[in-house]
Request: fold
Amino acid sequence: MGDIELLSWNYKDTPEAFSEIIKHDPSYFENIMEENGIGKYVLLITCNRVEIYFSGNGKVPIISKNPIYIKYPESIRHLFMVSSGLESMALGENDILRQIKTAYDLSSKRKHMDKFLSYTFQKALSVGKDVRTRTDISHGKTSLSTISLDIVEKNYGLKNKKIAIVGTGKMAVSLLNYLSGSGSSVTVAGRSPEHARNLAILYGASYTDLSEVHELIESNDIIITATSSKNYIIRKSHVENIEKPKIMVDLSNPPNIEKNLPDNISLYDLDMIYRISSETKGQRRMEIQRSREIIDGELEIYKDRINQMKSDDIISLFYRYSGEIMNEEIDELKRKINITDDQEKVIKIMMNSFTNKLLAPYTSSMKNFIKNNENYSYILREYDTMLDRILTKKDKKIIK
Reply:
């Protein structure tokens, strides 16, 4: 019955550690959780963050990659902020809701979910949708692709430009949607010529593979990388002999384009795009404040519900333990005297009535305390401690 806590690496707070940790596959994190004896968790991986929400029952996974560790309930506030798009590089972005839903579904499929995590992530999705409905936080340009192309269009223009998009995933689709009707000539490049061809046909673009990176750069004015590659696709050696000015946009994490390029190459990476997009946040302070107020209110509702769930579990343990005692006493009675089945039924009815009357004041006081007090977490710990004292190891195994 541990609180949900968080380990986080992200582009904003831990950029160096994040650039290393993002290179690992999900199995790497699953192995870490298994090695630390934690079976209930949700792994959220996006291009801007790696986060593990877990129920550790007092355990904190030991990881050498310097994550941020956030305790409950701030861990939940952070999740609500993420689902609302307030922690995204592109303020108010909508795709994060899909990514959270995918992480939730995968955790369920792999049997890493419990009822507390399940309720938490359902609530996070609900809060994210509610914030977008009740505020204008997601109005305007909210994706990395649209923000980056806005920057390029403002500084260099897009009309009559030759643009290469390296990648064939969701980001590439978003870029192609934006560029449709812009008056630019677009080429889709990918490691799989078939995937590049299929995507290019949908948008009336050209296509190629990545066998000749230098030629791809030479023949285009703007090159945008948006892949999941763990290694550089464009290196300094690819542009050393290119004399014409080029604009490069790297939307990938880990980066797809090596830094420290020649002066004729203008590079916009995620750090630069984030700095530029942050300037617009000042104009939307009112929407951010309204979003935070909604999140704070929903967090209080969440904490109340979680504590009710915990108290229900403890009350259930009381009654289950009482049931075990009752059965043991009846078995002992049957060893001493002969009783009929009808007599046993009457005895069980009497003992159940006695148990309910005995426990009623305790369960009632717990529910009333939770209903009328804000700071009630300690009472749950007290009841949990009391159960720990009275239950034998055998009883614990039965209850679990």
User: Anything to note?
Assistant: The longest strand covers residues 4-10. The CA atoms of residues 286 and 314 lie 42 Å apart. DSSP finds 15 helices and ten strands in the chain.
